[in-house]
From TrEMBL:
Protein name as annotated: Glycosyltransferase family 2 protein
CDD domains, sorted: Glyco_tranf_GTA_type (cd00761)
Family: Belongs to the glycosyltransferase 2 family.
Alphabetized Gene3D superfamilies for the sequence: Spore Coat Polysaccharide Biosynthesis Protein SpsA, Chain A (3.90.550.10)
Domain Glycosyltransferase 2-like: 3-154
PANTHER family xrefs: POLY-BETA-1,6-N-ACETYL-D-GLUCOSAMINE SYNTHASE (PTHR43630:SF1)
Originating organism: Lacinutrix iliipiscaria
Amino acid sequence: MLSILIPTYHYNVYPLAMQLEQQALVTGINYEIICLDDGSFSHFNTENQKINTLANCKFIEAKKNKGRTATRQKLAEIAQYQWLLFLDADTLPTHSEFIKNILTEINSDIDIIFGGIVYETTKPNKDKLLRWHYGKARESKSVFERQKAPYTSIISGSFVIKKDLFIKVNQLLLQNAYGLDILFTAHLKGLNVKVKHINNTVYHLGLETNEDYLKKTKKALDTLYQLKKSKAIRSNATKLLKTHSVLKTLGLASVFGKLIKNKTHKIEHHLMSSSPSLFLFDLYRLGYFCSLKF
């Protein structure tokens, strides 16, 4: 009935698989858990091999790194059930009835179920504060908040989807680029699929360092730039794109980009401090995007 699919790379996913196995066994459903390592050849995979000892569970090591999108596609293709639960390796259910709650909501009238992402209340070390602050403020949303924008509120770290729908949409994204979630949700919206938001959260545990998160942010903006330039997404798909369009119409986009670029060092120094401003982070992201040549 349910295929639980976990793409991973250089991460110990055994504790997650073990908890999911225990929850699935209690429900008595037909299930499988498949974890696919994307060619990391990590020392963690010694521990991950224990997944093969769990009931209806499998750990697979790819011989070549193909990226997150291709890894998910492979997982979906080998899954034997028609409902897929995708979980990132660095997530963990916040309660013991996570699987049970999903089963309660699954029905033919729904295409996707999203239960929400939360972050631990305890502050991490200073070198990971930016990602933590951003996650708590922008990603941890109530069901009511998510329902206002049902498609853009979906975060791919934890969601349930029909197998045929996922394969249909995800195969349009098969490129090794970071930040394709926006294109995925844009396709879902275009197909007018039925999304249900519920309160069934997971913790996002794998916080990047401030430095790594800023690098990933730029990669995601580079991808957004390519999507915008190729007209794969609309100019109003995100708040950042809307603001960029206004600045461009006023002839101020390149000016703003240069202004932020000249202040980059000072802004990054603040963003790596013990009290990073998300408003400044928004300006930083917008400025970087405006500096790209359209």
